[in-house]
Amino acid sequence: LKVTFVQQDGVEKTIEGLEPGQSLMEVGRNNGVDGILGDCGGSCACATCHVYIEPEWQAAVGAPDEVETATLDMAGDVLKPNSRLCCQIALRPELDGLRMRVAPGM
Ligand code: FES
């Protein structure tokens, strides 16, 4: 499976050969994507894994749950309708090719 992160500086990082099950935060952090910090280790408490899902992928990715929505509020002004915390998205076959933009840091 592969996913693409578009960094704040416009650089696109495509990571291929991924196995299902890992979180997109882990994928980003393990592959040196700028701006994916994952400070809380993926427990949905820090919002340093904030991404914007590209519109064509929003339906496949789905909406955040209540806990994630509450944490996303920490993002404040940079929150958008397509915001997600990528530690809460597990890679699965339907997401092969997913594109997302890294949100500005807090
Ligand atoms: Fe902390 Fe995602 S890594 S909320």
What does this structure look like?
One of its GO terms (molecular function) is electron transfer activity. Belongs to the adrenodoxin/putidaredoxin family. Residues 1-106 form the 2Fe-2S ferredoxin-type domain. Its cofactor is [2Fe-2S] cluster. This is 2Fe-2S iron-sulfur cluster binding domain-containing protein. The protein has 106 residues and is of the alpha+beta class. The chain has a single domain (3-102), classed as Ubiquitin-like (UB roll) (Roll), CATH 3.10.20.30. 17% of the residues lie in helices and 19% in strands. The chain is built from 3 helices and 5 strands. The chain has helices spanning 24-30, 58-61, 66-72; strands at 3-6, 12-15, 50-53, 83-85, 98-102. The chain has a 5-stranded mixed β-sheet. The longest helix is centred in the N-terminal third of the chain and has 7 residues, at 24-30. It is globular, with a radius of gyration of 12 Å. The model has no long low-confidence stretch (mean pLDDT 97). FE2/S2 (inorganic) cluster binds at residues 25, 38-40, 42, 44-49, 71, 85, 87.
Termini, distance in Å? 30 Å
For the record, the CATH architecture stands as Roll
Helix fraction?
10-25%
Number of strands: 5
Structural class: alpha+beta
Biggest β-sheet description: 5 strands, mixed
What fold name goes in the CATH topology slot? Ubiquitin-like (UB roll)
CA-atom Rg in angstroms: 12 Å
* String of helices and strands: EEHEHHEE
CATH superfamily annotation: Beta-grasp domain
Mean pLDDT: 97
List all distinct small molecules, including ions and cofactors, that are bound in this structure: FE2/S2 (inorganic) cluster
| Count of runs of 4 or more consecutive helical residues | 3
Question: In percent, how much strand structure appears in the residues?
Answer: 15-25%
Q: Assign the CATH class.
A: Alpha Beta
Described by the principal axes of the CA atoms, the overall outline is globular
Q: Write down the domain tally.
A: 1
Order of strands, main sheet, comes to 2-1-5-3-4
Which blocks of ≥5 consecutive residues have pLDDT under 50? none
Protein name: 2Fe-2S iron-sulfur cluster binding domain-containing protein
Keywords: 2Fe-2S, Iron, Iron-sulfur, Metal-binding
Family: Belongs to the adrenodoxin/putidaredoxin family.
Pfam families: Fer2
